[in-house]
Specification:
about 350 residues, alpha/beta, 13 helices
């Protein structure tokens, strides 16, 4: 483990109750600028479709906007759902982004549609086939970025020869196996499907094959994080996260809801079981509490990077949580350095 653990942000651009897409995208820009100033490493955006309360459906457009409004932070996809797109188009888009913003663009790739089955078919009629061809399409995408593709009949401009780091995203052993076999960095979606995280990381480490892109395993975990001055305040803020997953289970899509009292009383035992499973990799509390819990998590998972997502209703509280989480990261780094000295 390195003595310094980079921390990054996955922003889902969820529209809050009494808000709209315009305000959400403006706040997404402000979040990215704050993360940039605080020294976060990456700011990733996810591809979702047919969701009235998610403002990141045109993910590539939003990545370009955020990159244009920030200075140093890496901006990327967490992720682009490759079965929705032709590899050639993805290469052209991200090659353009990387040309405009050199050494600042990441390309995280996922296999899921980022939507429901009917919408996936509306996006691409052969989605199921392309999902099964995910490994081959990742290879095709890599080829389009490769300078050695110059002799091919189909080429991607301005992607050819441009360096865009590709990450494999996932929440299963299949994604871990693909990332390991291709020698690519691996990011696990612990913020909504943490069940197989430890097994996936272990499989990835054990089966990693060095490549021209990466010589040793590189793992990132994405987790939920809600931080406030006190444990009680953070727990109250986190009820918006709980409601988000509860509404998902009920198939009752709503904007991000404000915090509530007595959230457990609003769930049946079965609903609470499923919500607890989906949010098992969540860090909620004061900086001191989260620092202790994250220290254990990092040592256990052996991750190289940490990415957080924070569905907090109040924008000022969300900004404060970002500040506090950066403080937490510094305290963990300091603690790790002390451990190394000892």
């Amino acid at each position: 483990m390195s003595a310094s653990l980079p921390i990054s942000i996955l922003e889902l651009a969820i529209i809050a109750e009494d808000s709209n897409a315009t305000s959400t995208l403006e706040r997404t820009k402000l979040l990215a600028q704050t993360a940039d100033k605080l020294g976060y490493k990456r700011f990733w955006l996810a591809e979702h479709h047919n969701m009235a309360h998610v403002a990141s459906s045109a993910t590539v457009v939003l990545i370009g906007h955020i990159a244009s409004q920030t200075q140093k932070i890496r901006v990327g996809s967490g992720g682009i759902m490759l079965p929705n797109h032709a590899p050639l188009i993805v290469a052209e888009q991200f090659g353009t982004l990387a040309t405009l913003y050199p050494n600042r663009i990441d390309l995280g790739l996922g296999r899921a549609p980022g939507t429901d089955g009917l919408t996936a078919q509306a996006i691409r009629k052969d989605f199921v086939e392309q999902s099964q061809r995910f490994p081959e399409n990742v290879t095709a995408l890599q080829d389009f970025f490769n300078v050695n593709n110059a002799s091919a009949k189909v080429r991607a401009f301005p992607a050819e020869g441009v360096s865009v780091p590709i990450w494999i995203l996932g929440s299963s052993l299949d994604s871990a196996a693909l990332a390991a076999s291709k020698g690519l960095p691996y990011a696990f979606a612990g913020h909504f499907a943490p069940k197989l995280m430890h097994q996936a990381f272990q499989y990835y480490r054990d089966h990693f094959e060095p490549s021209a892109y990466l010589q040793k395993p590189k793992m990132m975990a994405c987790v939920n994080a809600v931080t406030a001055d006190t444990d009680e305040e953070a727990a109250k803020l986190a009820t918006s996260l709980t409601q988000m997953f509860l509404n998902l289970i009920r198939n009752d899509r709503k904007p991000l809801q404000p915090p509530v009292e007595g959230i457990n009383d609003q769930m049946s035992e079965v609903e609470k079981f499923h919500v607890d499973q989906m949010t098992a990799c969540s860090f909620v509390g004061s900086p001191e509490k989260i620092a202790r819990e994250l220290q254990q998590f990092i040592q256990y998972t052996q991750i190289n990077e940490l990415m957080i997502t924070s569905p907090i209703y109040d924008f000022d509280a969300k900004i404060k949580s970002m500040h506090l989480m950066k403080t937490v990261a510094v305290s963990i780094i300091t603690s790790k350095k002390e451990n190394l000295v000892l």
